[in-house]
């Protein structure tokens, strides 16, 4: 696979993992020149999604090294191609997981390009020109404008960055199941991490009763007081799990690691839905009994389309929804990845890409 093409002439400073140790080191690489449908973006902030960690360590066996992670990107447009519509220099913009799709299939034509068979990601993907995509742990991005969104003026660029992946990934299933406009349902969120904490905020904002199902006792007070969850279940506590059997209409599973589905399925009412967005590297065991005795469904989904990403951001602008972040300088990315691995983040690390770090040779 070609890493670059002759059109890749822009030298960019960034940070990459070179092998499956996942260690992130400074890395200079080339991006394509701004094409007629491209915008060039000076990156300001980039969230650290758990997917970055999966990619950096080759958890899913599909990483092409060097990998420049990052797909929760906010920044400012510095250049606009002649065929670009809707963007101008100086615009505050965001780029998420989507870098390219075929533009012609039934999914691309119906604003579901996230389900295009030719979907390519912003990091560790292969762009139309055959080059490997390098993500947002870098100073500059060149993106096709059809995969770029506007960040509402009132949202801070750092706390908005994780909305580009974590936000849309949990907004989409809630919207798909009619939960944006029909309040009063009982919603469960499994795993209170980057995705999970935004899911709690959305489910609350949409007027639902929200239960967090977590492995971390230390998150109970925060879940309730800071994020506004109504209930908290410690998944290792059999009594608490038992008391909640058949109580929830819809559960969003955001867990990154191996875990059992059986006890989670039992929390669903009859005809309830378990929607999986977390992506553990090992297959789940799917027990038949909680499905057949409860007519329950198990589904999954990946992010959301671009149009809906804009809709989600506009909703966040209107209702002042942002992420709870820990802002770090680029020289602390490895420390942040270690902490993310140990489930020690409240609730998303965001890299201040444009910051000056004394320890960093490139800045
Ligand atoms: N489908 C998509 O489009 C999409 C988009 C983005 C990310 N993802 C995937 O979604 C997953 C979550 O991403 P994230 O950035 O939110 O990660 P994260 O911040 O690390 O949060 C994951 C949470 O899951 C819980 N958890 C972790 N390991 C667990 C285990 N073995 N058993 C039970 N609970 C566990 C923890 O919450 P508690 O402490 O509360 O238990 C943790 O905070 C990752 O696999 C990521 O690749 C998918
Ligand atoms: Zn992500
Ligand atoms: Zn397509």
From TrEMBL:
SUPFAM superfamilies reported in the protein's UniProt record: GroES-like, NAD(P)-binding Rossmann-fold domains
**Pfam families noted in UniProt:** ADH_N, ADH_zinc_N
Gene3D superfamilies assigned to the protein according to its UniProt record, in alphabetical order: Medium-chain alcohol dehydrogenases, catalytic domain (3.90.180.10), NAD(P)-binding Rossmann-like Domain (3.40.50.720)
Annotated Enoyl reductase (ER) domain ranges read 16-351
Has the keyword Ribosomal protein been applied to this entry?
no
List, in alphabetical order, the Gene Ontology terms for molecular function in this entry: oxidoreductase activity, acting on the CH-OH group of donors, NAD or NADP as acceptor; zinc ion binding
List the residue ranges forming a coiled coil, or say none. Answer: none
Keywords, ordered alphabetically: Metal-binding, Oxidoreductase, Zinc
Q: Output the GO biological process annotations, alphabetical, semicolon-separated.
A: lignin biosynthetic process
Q: Which cofactor does it need?
A: Zn(2+)
Q: Which CDD domains match?
A: CAD1
Q: Does the keyword Protein biosynthesis apply?
A: no
Entry-linked PANTHER family:
ALDEHYDE REDUCTASE
Give the protein family. Belongs to the zinc-containing alcohol dehydrogenase family.
Put simply, this protein is called: Enoyl reductase (ER) domain-containing protein
